[in-house]
From TrEMBL:
<dbReference type="GO" id="GO:0047661">
    <property type="term" value="F:amino-acid racemase activity"/>
</dbReference>
<dbReference type="Pfam" id="PF01177">
    <property type="entry name" value="Asp_Glu_race"/>
</dbReference>
<dbReference type="InterPro" id="IPR015942">
    <property type="entry name" value="Asp/Glu/hydantoin_racemase"/>
</dbReference>
<comment type="similarity">
    <text>Belongs to the HyuE racemase family.</text>
</comment>
<dbReference type="InterPro" id="IPR052186">
    <property type="entry name" value="Hydantoin_racemase-like"/>
</dbReference>
<dbReference type="GO" id="GO:0036348">
    <property type="term" value="F:hydantoin racemase activity"/>
</dbReference>
<protein>
    <recommendedName>
        <fullName>Hydantoin racemase</fullName>
        <ecNumber>5.1.99.5</ecNumber>
    </recommendedName>
</protein>
<dbReference type="InterPro" id="IPR053714">
    <property type="entry name" value="Iso_Racemase_Enz_sf"/>
</dbReference>
Amino acid sequence: MHILLINPNSTASMTSQVLESAVRVAYPTTRITAVNPVDTPVSIEGGADEAMAVPAMLSEIRKGQAQGVDAYVIACFDDPGLHAAREIARGPVIGICQAAIQVAMTISRRFTVITTLPRSIPIIEDLVSAYGANHHCRNVRAINLPVLGLDEDPVEAERLLVMEIGKAKQEDRAEAIVLGCAGMSLLCDRLSAATGIPVIDGVTAAVKVAEALVGAGYKTSKVNGYDFPRVKSPSPVSSMEQVGNLA
C-alpha cells in the first residue's frame, strides 16, 4: 500500500522528521512518501495559518489521487482541512489529532494533550470535543515554545515537555500523554521512558490507523457528506460586470 504523508506547512526539515517517524513504525510492505507545499506558512499556529495552508494541501491530495495513493495522513495536529480532504480523496484521510485521541482513549481512561503555544489550546479543545473525547481529556497544556523552536532547540523542547508531563501526571492525574504537534514526533519514545507514562505521537498513530483501514479494504464514503465536490460551471458574467449592469 502507498500512504502519502502531507505536512501542510512549508518547512522541509519538519517533513523529513515526520517521515522518519512514520517509516519507523510502518510495515515493510508499506510505501510511505512525504510532501510539503512551498507556498504555505512555515508553521501552522492558528486559524489564519490553517486557512492559508489548506488549498495547497488539497492540491497534493489531488496529485495523490492521480498517482493511486491508498491513504493520506495530514501531519498537523490542528487537522486542518480534514473534512475537505475527505471529500476529494477516495482512500482514507487520517488527521493526526483524531488518530492520537482515539489511541489515547483506547489505552487509557484519562489523558492530557501537550502542545506548543497557548494560542493552540482553544483549537485543540474544540477538536477534543468534536471527536467525542471531552470526558477522557483532562487538560490541554502548552510549553509556550513556537513550533519552529522544536527544531531550533530540541534540548530545551524536551526539557519543557518532561516538566509539563510531570505536571499532567500530578495535577491532571493523566494516564497517557498526547503530543500536540507533529514536530514532537521523534521525542515520543524518550519522553515515555523518562516520565514512565505512555506518550502518544499522532504521526505514528495515524500511520497505523491508515494501514489498518487500507488493509481491511475501507475507503472514504461517497454517500452525501464526503461525496466528491460537485463540478460547477463558471458564471458567464463576472460580479463586477453585474454591478455595472445594475447601475
